[in-house]
Amino acid sequence: MPIPADAPILTSAAMRVAEAACAAAGTSLSELMERAGAAVADTAWRMAAGAPILILCGPGNNGGDGYVAARLLGERGAAVRVAALAPPATDLAKAARAAWTGAVEAIVDGLPPAPLIVDALFGVGLTRPLADDLARRLRGFADKRILAVDVPSGVDADGQHGWEPPLPADVTLALGALKPAHVLLPTARRCGTVLLAPIGIAADRTMCSLPRQAARSPDAGSHKYNRGMLLVRAGPMAGAAALAAAAGLRAGAGYAVLSGADEAPFAAIIAEDGASYAARLDDKRLGAVVIGPGYPASDALGRDVAAAIAAGKPLVLDAAAIDVALPRLDGTPAILTPHEGEFARAFSDLAGNKIERARAAAERVGAVMIYKGADTIIAAPDGRVVAAWPGSPWLATAGTGDVLAGACGAMLASGGDAFDAAVAAVGWHIDAARRIGPGLVADDLIRD
Question: What does the entry list as the binding residues for K(+) (predicted)?
Answer without folding.
Answer: 62, 119, 153
